[in-house]
Amino acid sequence: MTNIQDELWMRRALALAERGRGYVEPNPLVGAVLVRDGQNVGEGWHQRYGQAHAEVNAIVAAGEAARGATLYVTLEPCCHHGKTPPCTDAVLRAGIRRVVTAMADPFPQVSGKGVEVLRPAGIEVAVGVLESESRQLNAPYLKLLARGRPWVHAKWAMTLDGKIATASGDSQWISNEASRRRVHALRGRMDAIIVGGGTVHADNPLLTARPPGPRTATRIVLEGSTELPSGCQLVRTAHEAPVLVVQSRQRQMELPGVEVIALPTEAAGVSVEALLDELGRRRMTNVLVEGGSAVLGSFLTAGALDEVHVFIAPKLAGGADAKSPIGGAGVDRIADALRLLRWSVEQIEGDIYIHGWTDG
Predict the structure, then answer these.
(1) For the chain, how many helices (H) and strands (E)?
(2) pLDDT for 57-91, tens place per residue?
């Protein structure tokens, strides 16, 4: 039976798990706390892919105090040999008397088997404490397991009247410097950043995180009818961060350090479904769609947006021909619009940042 104390300690474990974001993917974010006689005697989180899991870090921190303690962990302890030994073995050796986990791990080699190892050994196990919060924390991991596709973030900056550029195409800079720093931090935990060929030709972006984050994203360009300019920043920095050009049909392109692939097409260009399947095969967990308007529109039409990051500047640009963030055909009725299930609003030195999760 769970209680208020179980939820209290599980929230601490969830907060610890969040510290691994960007460092552990495609593994899940996991945090763990060991409690004995009402006191936190050791805690840890999965800090980096391929390194010790959260349970092991918490047990090491607790030392002998782990014996007879309760372990709170945000995901079922693993019971198989992967890059590290089974966490269930460490739990048994430590003499832990009770394990409280937020949710079962759907990874096929675990998926309830960890619990099956612990209970026969006399350890009391409770599953499902703050499960909803744990699922939200690890939504990208769960999607990659269930559907073989990455979690899709969309980002744009716009004026108060909903413009991402003026009618002449000028867009630098709509958001302020503090907002742009937030975008760089977001880029630094992505596996890929996706833009259209038009954005590359118009803005010549670098698409890197500055300063660098825990991950180096592959810069993905969805090419239209023209080829990637040989002198653009993406090509010149291909030795620093990967560049992947996705074409609707294989055309001859020889640019140093640039990978070129062809994928099936749909009415709006390269198939979003085919692209996400390809990125899932590459074990990408989080990808960021930065634009332009047509590319964002194609992801909306495909029902492929999971999370949005919108920066609104207190400026009015006007212009009937100035672009809005999301192009494409759009919906016919407001009732059919994509809704945000959860969202937060934050002021960043005058800009407004809206961060939301869609109903997919």
Answers:
(1) 11, 16
(2) 999 999 999 999 999 999 999 987 777 889 999 99
Stated length of the chain: 360
- Crossing angle of helices 87-94 and 54-62, in 10° steps, is 20
Nearest C-alpha neighbor of 194 from the set 294, 327, 287, 323: 287
pTM: 0.94
CA pair distance 190, 23, nearest whole angstrom:
10
Strands 265-266 and 269-270, bridge-based pairing: antiparallel
Give catalytic residues, as residue numbers: 55
Neighbouring-strand partners of residue 260: 245
DSSP-based three-state secondary structure for 307: strand
Q: Residue written as tokens 């899991």?
A: 53
For residue 50, count CB atoms less than 10 angstroms from its CB and return exposed for 0-12, middle for 13-18, buried for 19 or more. Answer: exposed
Strand-pair category, 70-73 with 31-36: antiparallel
What burial class does residue 311 get, using C-beta atoms within 10 Å of its C-beta: 0-12 exposed, 13-18 middle, 19+ buried?
buried
* Residue 147 banded pLDDT, cuts 50, 70, 90: very high
CA nearest neighbour of 220 among 172, 271, 287, 310? 287
| 121, 127, 130, 131 alpha-carbon torsion, rounded to 10° | 130
Structure tokens that stand for 338 in this block: 């994509």
Instruction: Give dist(CA 40, CA 144) in Å, integer.
Output: 33
The average pLDDT across 248-261 equals 81
- Answer yes or no: are the C-beta atoms of 296 and 267 closer than 8 Å: no
Distance from C-alpha of 97 to C-alpha of 126, rounded to nearest angstrom: 12
Mean pLDDT to the nearest integer, 302-307? 97
Answer yes or no: are the C-beta atoms of 97 and 66 closer than 8 Å: no
- What is the torsional sign of CA 144, 237, 240, 207? negative
Q: What is the pLDDT of residues 154-200, one digit of tens each?
A: 999 999 999 999 999 888 899 999 999 999 999 999 999 999 998 99
pLDDT digits (tens, 9 = 90+) for 88-140: 999 999 999 999 999 999 998 888 899 999 999 999 999 999 999 999 999 99
Task: With both helix axes pointing from N to C terminus, report the angle between 293-301 and 272-281 in degrees, rounded to the nearest 10.
Answer: 90
